[in-house]
Specification:
heterodimer; A: mainly alpha; Four Helix Bundle (Hemerythrin (Met), subunit A); B: alpha/beta; Rossmann fold; OB fold (Dihydrolipoamide Acetyltransferase, E2P); 2 domains; 8 helices
Chain lengths: 105, 239
């Protein structure tokens, strides 16, 4: 499975290390909150709300350079909008990989 | 360009702010996590450009645009390309950036915004140039909420000073404008308009009757100061 990376963050920071660190801190703070809301809404079978959470999480997936995972998230969001949960496991595996990666940064 | 950033995601706001910092012509005045806070800010301040997220809870980017009067130029930022067609329905939207935003694409977008704003200034200058001719084409442009509204000069019957504002009364509508009587007096044809009091300019052709110290125009009774009365009497076609 593809692994997260900091290519995007480095490409737009212009070499500003302080900004890179600041952005990582923001992501480390915001990502668990968004993830918690997603898991709660999924557990409550609130598909529309879950789709919105996936939509928000998609941005962080792309920031961490997970291109294929991004496509899965897009498809999963569409599924949730249609009231289906196909790709749920795949999406949650992506969240797990991101969690592990952010923890070691 | 003074701008603000509206996005419910702190990560997105930080990225856009960083991208803005690489462009010297951009000055970020504020960041807002929701549209409501931004609307409150815009009620007190004006900006040239807004980076606006579409997908926000409760109040979307499009709701925001529909709510504010005379929106400035807007660059939409979104994780979704599917709203692009809807975006083209709004004149104020200059570009549509799909997240994650690359520096190259961001700079292209800024150039677009600058070009739109430059055109706007040129249009305004053209209108101001028309202003100079307004005595011949009988029109005057007044600035209300950053909109230039064209007024037919002969339709103006009364202008009243109200503190830092003037109220321009026309046959169809009244307008309150941030200006002075002196400013508007200079723009009006002297053969048609006369300052009869320190707070009033009237259209002489609209006078219904005159009493000692007042004139009746439409339904407004306007005081005439002693010093202005001789000029008024001179301008009337008296028997």
């Amino acid at each position: 499975m593809e692994q997260p990376n900091l290519s995007y963050i480095k490409s737009m920071s212009g070499g500003d290390k302080a900004f890179e660190q600041k952005l990582i801190e923001i992501i480390k703070l915001e990502f668990p909150q968004e993830k918690d809301v997603y898991y709660y809404n999924v557990s409550q079978k609130k598909h529309k709300e879950s789709a919105e959470n996936v939509h928000k999480l998609k941005h962080k997936i792309s920031i961490l350079g997970l291109e294929k995972s991004y496509d899965i998230a897009v498809a999963y969001e569409e599924n949730l909008i249609e009231g289906k949960t196909d790709l749920k496991n795949e999406f949650e595996a992506i969240l797990q990989i991101m969690t592990l990666y952010l923890d070691q940064l | 360009m003074n701008c603000i950033i509206i996005d419910d995601e702190a990560t997105a706001r930080a990225i856009i702010n960083q991208l803005c910092s690489s462009v010297t012509s951009i000055n970020v005045l504020g960041e807002f996590p929701n549209a409501i806070q931004a609307i409150k800010y815009l009620n007190q301040n004006s900006v040239d450009l807004i980076f606006l997220d579409i997908h926000m809870p409760d109040f979307t980017g499009f709701d925001f645009i529909d709510t504010i009067k005379n929106p400035p130029k807007i660059i939409l930022t979104t994780s979704d390309a599917k709203f692009a067609i809807q975006a083209f329905e709004y004149d104020c939207i200059v570009d549509y950036l799909v997240k994650p935003i690359s520096q190259e694409r961001f700079l292209k977008s800024i150039k677009k915004a600058e070009s739109f704003l430059a055109n706007k200034v040129e249009e305004k200058e053209e209108v101001n140039a028309d202003d100079g001719d307004s005595l011949t084409d009988n029109h005057l442009y007044i600035n209300i909420d950053r909109r230039l509204i064209k007024i037919d000069i002969p339709s103006i019957y009364l202008i009243e000073a109200k503190g830092d504002y003037i109220q321009v009364k026309t046959e169809d509508k009244n307008y309150t404008v941030h200006s002075t009587l002196k400013n508007i007096e200079e723009k009006l044809p002297a053969d048609l308009f006369l300052k009869v009091h320190r707070s009033y300019i009237i259209n002489i052709k609209k006078i219904i009757d005159i009493e000692d110290n007042s004139v009746l125009i439409k339904r407004d009774v306007i005081p005439v100061s002693r010093s202005n009365r001789p000029e008024l009497m001179k301008r009337l076609n008296l028997l």
